[in-house]
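S.,

Sequence below, as promised.
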Amino acid sequence: MYNYLPPRNGIPGKGHSLIKVTGDGELAVQPDTATVNLGVVTENKVLITAQQRNSQESKRVIDSLLALGIPHSHVQTFDYRIESDYDYEQGKQIFRGYKITHIVQVKIEDLTLIGKVVDTGVENGVNYVSNIQFKVKNKDPYYQQALTLALNNAIEKAKTIAAALNVTLVPTPSSIIEGGAVAQPFYHQPETLVKGISSTQFEPGQILVKANIAAEFHYLQTF
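The prediction came back faster than expected:
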């Protein structure tokens, strides 16, 4: 909006001309924690047999993780499914058996252990690995920095627009609306590992912590 009302004692009045801008801030942060989903999938034509096998192998996996020093509170069931499997021959559905899937999510605070956690899980019965995700436990301090960058970005935009219009910018924004925090975790794509195959080295990379704002600035006509 560009409707101009003369200022009173140099202070812009209500309805005074405004410059509206958005500001974005982004900060690259090293992750300090990770989660990974480890699954045991068993199949058998007899349901109780499939369940028993899955239970035994899942327990062995969990025990092996605890032996690595992973706290029990950092290992929790993420998904548990019982499914019927069928083959199709000449348009006919033929029962093949039952498939039991038990997936646990493991939280890892020592990032040097990620590869060992996956390897240990695979060695003890894990045949499905997915959703390896790197995170920051406390992103608030980083968000505050990103928010400052977003505000500075908005101010610089407002200055650029004011210069292009040949008007005098009131440097303190009259309104700031916070858009919210966004932390983009680093993922490894889901993958299925066959028992006995060692995992690759996992690189945590960096996490982008983002902030954005919308701001309004008054300006004075230059005469």
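The longest helix spans residues 140-165.

Coffee later?
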